[in-house]
Specification:
267 residues, alpha/beta, nine-stranded mixed beta sheet, 11 strands, 31% helix
Length: 267
Amino acid sequence: MRDSFKHLTHKMASLRVMVGVKRVIDYAVKIRVKPDKTGVVTEGVKHSMNPFDEIAVEEAVRLKEKKIAKEIIAVSCGPKQSQETLRTALAMGVDRAVHVEVTGKDYEGLGPLQVSKILAKLAQEEDVSLVILGKQAIDDDCNQTGQMLASYLDWPQATFASEVNLDDGHLKVVREIDGGLETVRVKMPCVVTADLRLNEPRYATLPNIMKAKKKPLVKKTAADLGVELAPRIEVLKVEDPPVREAGQKVDDVQDLVAKLKDAGRLG
């Protein structure tokens, strides 16, 4: 029995984890649409790591601190500035990083489909047993990459995770659903996407930021991985949301009903 436990511990301690991190416009920045309506203004705008990806990184680092994970690899797809996002992940405790450089028109058309293909190739190359992603990015809110990745790898998936625990070589994941909470137990290797309540990410300290500069960061291209970046979606126009109309005050319920009838909102 003791030998069996040692074997299980050793097996889990050799777990290699990959996390995806995306560079997005900072959540505190007010988004502005370009005058030509082709997209949003990104030049001179503060960017940071996608908040849900910060949670994914934190969860991976906690697995390593618990001696469950042996190594953590962060991946980001995008222009050169994505390396700043990767350095943040390294400062949080990630061991090494891979930057898949995507620029110009390819970057403008980069979506969950292409990113999931890139991550699938890297997961196979790196021989990882667990991929943790944020459940969605706050710029496009697609919530698709984790699910597509699991499909390409043919791995089990546990999305919207609010709690992750090791359970006899499996992952026991509490996930958030419309009706409350659902607990699933998935075999590894698997894909997990992090929800808001999974953890609270740590801040990168100055000493760790300095250490991160010396950690390995490898640059690749989609062509290196054999992934085609041709976009499948064409953006026709981007517009600001309509301005909300001013409300009206009512004296009582009868007044409210009368106004709704006048507006044609009640039969």
